[in-house]
Amino acid sequence: MKVDRLYEQRKIAIHLLRSGLSKPEVASRLHRSREWVYTWWSRYNKNKDFTDLRSHSSAPKYIPGKISEEIRREIKIARSELEAEKAEGKTKVHIGVESVQERLKIRGLKKIPSTKSIERILKESGMSKRHRIGDKQTKPQLQKTKPHTTTKIMEGSHKKAVANRQLKPGGNTYTSQVNSRKQNPSWVLKLLQGKVGLGELNNGLSGKLDQKEIQKLLKCVLNNPLRQRNRAAIIISYLYGVPKSKISSSLLVSPEGVNRCIKRFKAKGIGEALKPSWNISRKFDDPKYKDAVFKILHAPPSSYGINRTSWRMEDIKSVMAKQGMILSIVNIRKIIKGEGYRFRKAKKVLTSNDPDYLEKVQHIKNILSNLGAKEKFFSIDEYGPFSIKLYGGTSLMPPGVTKTIPQFQKSKGSLIITGALELSTNQMTHFYSDTKDTEEMLRLLEILLKKYKSADCIYLSWDAASWHCSKEFTDRVEEANKPKYRKSHGTPLVKLAPLPAGAQFLNVIESVFSGMAKAIIHNSDYESVKECKKAINRHFSERNRKFKKNPKRAGNKIWGKEIVKPHFSESNNCKDPNHR
Q1: Which residues of 417-449 are buried (b: 16+ CB within 10 A; e: fewer)?
Q2: Which of 50-59, 76-85, 470-479, 568-577 has the lowest mean pLDDT?
Q3: CA distances from 281 to 159, 285, 286 (A)
Q4: Is 42 buried (19+), middle (13-18) or exposed (0-12) by CB count in 10 A?
Q5: Residue 342: inside a domain, yes or no?
Q6: Number of domains the chain contains
Q7: pLDDT grade, residue 148 (50/70/90)?
Q8: What is the value of pTM for the model shown?
């Protein structure tokens, strides 16, 4: 036997191990795995007994639903008592399984088996009277009568039944046909096979649909694709009185699908119900849901009363639900991935940890919504430093040619671009810096004060870099805002509107820098810093000139194809992770 062979092999393994061979050597000799050898060696070592090497039974040691012997005995006693009472001639005594159950309840038995279990126990003990082998099955025999008499009786009963059916109004017309259809689901299949004619449908659906609609449905059943064919069959069968369960099983369509089709037919008519697609909008493509997801992601979880430092999918879902926007975790994940982010990056890039995030964002939104004609709002940041060298990127290549970039290159120089984007006119002001510090910010302030003298007020918005909000810079802003200085120099009032900490994604100029990087830096190999500066200057000058002629937000011009639209919004990710 196979079991004996396994036992012998296990004994051989133990003998070899006790002789001094290692476990890998034993496994190799017996063509077994090391785990197998370790298992049986540990089994043997437990009691040092070879009988432990035999295969153990895999049957469960405890069966929760098994009926105990005590309950089985009580069932047999109850049945025996009932049989005795019946034999003594007591009135209305039943000995069936239901009576046995009642007797057990009277005795106060807690766990009473089902009727099927009681029947099985009685049958096993030979106490069941159903289909006993000793009982003779006698067939009922008809009484001998005269042949003519039997025929006359049958004929009379047949005539009486026909007469009764004719007396009932509509007894043998439409009602009987509907009943036959209810009982016979193959009628739906006959409809699909074209075996139900137009005349029959006109008779059955008269008063419910006009003739043109009936003809349209039948034509759809016979000629259209499967989905429309099923929908037309559902409508016809439903109006004919076929139960929905029969329609579902005959057409192999889910009950929900049948109900959905009928509901649409009742609400919008045949035309809408038979449309190839019902244009069900997908939530993850809806801009309303996209904006809501990123608006939540950009704020720290503590802003919504969640005691966490990073967002989870279920947290975003619960916050949206409180706002009345039901969205599944799958759709939330699709929205984030659709924007080019993964959740790992979202925790690093998309989330601000500023406790005053919502207040600062609302302050900037209030400024932009009430920005006057002589007020200017600047988004300020630096790009770089970046080296002047050969850069890679997506480019059109001939077959069999692969563009390669050396891992180690000698830099031809480096650049830092300091820029300010005016949001109302979409004009870019920039210059080149050697470092990122307060001196460069003071230089930018002087350029903006001279360039926008005609403005009444300018707002400066930037991220939380230390040189953007240094004491030296704020002192210079206070000096420039003094009435005496403004009157003598003719400069506008300067107000600061800093972004929340860690919220670079809200800085609108980041989108312009991302577009510039893709157009000018990627796939580039400038010979010198001067040549690179010339290309950058041309890019920004063409951009400014086009927006002066066509004062629209960026997006659809070849010179300004920013990867993301440069406009301020809580849900906008201005800093593209792929082009920085």
Answers
A1: bbbbbbbeebbbbbeebeebebebbbebbeebb
A2: 568-577
A3: 63, 8, 8
A4: exposed
A5: yes
A6: 4
A7: very low
A8: 0.42
